[in-house]
Amino acid sequence: MKPVPSTLALIALVAATACSAEAVQAPAAQPKAAAVHAAAAAGPASPAKTMKLDIADITPMAETTEKVGVGFPIIVTFDRDVKDKAAVEALLEVQAEKPVEGAWRWVSPKKVIYRTKTYWKPHQKILFTARLSQLPGNAAKDITRRFAVGTANISVVDTRRHVMKTYRDGKLAKKIPISAGRGGLIKNGVDVYLTTSGVHLTMGKKAVETMTSSWMGVTDPKDPRYYKEEIPWAVRISDSGEYVHQSAGYYQYLGRSNQSHGCVRATPAGAKWFYTIAQRGDVVKITGTKRKLDWQNGWSYWQLSWTQWQQGSALKS
């Protein structure tokens, strides 16, 4: 099924999946002689103009608003393209009460993301500081944000055995019967009915999410393939529309076979429990399907190896 985009969706859809939300011209060069004359007439070079590079958004939210999971990334979006990425990156600092190695990776001219080599340690505070006032000629002030890491929620979804096991701080807390994507709908060479295998992170949740068939281009209620359903306890795990959510009926398949359009369907009690404990940045590792999760699909940054991740830094190691 495919839902209406929530405010927590961060990036455009990477690939269609059944469980997605409803949804100055440069001046001409001077001749050499004229250029030399112009330079002589200009006299000494004037000082560089004051600029202002600032931060437009930081994700996740501060410690007073939310606790985050042990896989969470720090996502920093600037208000303009960053020309000297190395200089700016050198001014971004992350201090954890329980330190682990981490690195920044640039994913666009405006956006840089911090990921750790291994998961964060749970139950701690992390301080992010952007010392933008130290950037030469920059008029912006320094910015800080403190994050709170909560319980280490790590869930493993086995699509072949049709079960999700959730561990909290290393201990098995619950086993939930599930039904994953059944497969069978090929778009651009991809079976979009298959759940993606890989390390997902929870990105947000809604007590009730509206899911429709519009992702397939089916919007006519008279079409036998049309659906529009209000789905309880929906926790988003990708940008392409995958959720862990309560099954809309069909409980006979839970724990027995894969019958969904790509989401992980769970029992009413199991889905509600998972929704209740879910924090943004919790780890959901899915195994057993032939469709691989793309690292740019949502917060799926753990799909890259540590060496691959470090290659996106502007700083020379």
TrEMBL record:
The keyword Cell wall biogenesis/degradation applies. One of its GO terms (molecular function) is peptidoglycan L,D-transpeptidase activity. Pfam families: Big_10, YkuD. GO terms for biological process: cell wall organization; peptidoglycan-protein cross-linking; regulation of cell shape. Pathway: Cell wall biogenesis; peptidoglycan biosynthesis. Keywords: Acyltransferase, Cell shape, Cell wall biogenesis/degradation, Peptidoglycan synthesis, Signal, Transferase. The active site is at residues 245, 263. It comes from the Bacteria. SUPFAM superfamilies: L,D-transpeptidase catalytic domain-like (SSF141523). InterPro entries: Big_10, LD-transpeptidase, LD_TPept_cat_dom, Transpep_catalytic_dom. This is L,D-transpeptidase catalytic domain. Residues 153-287 form the L,D-TPase catalytic domain. Residues 1-23 form the signal peptide. CDD domains: YkuD_like. GO terms for cellular component: extracellular region.
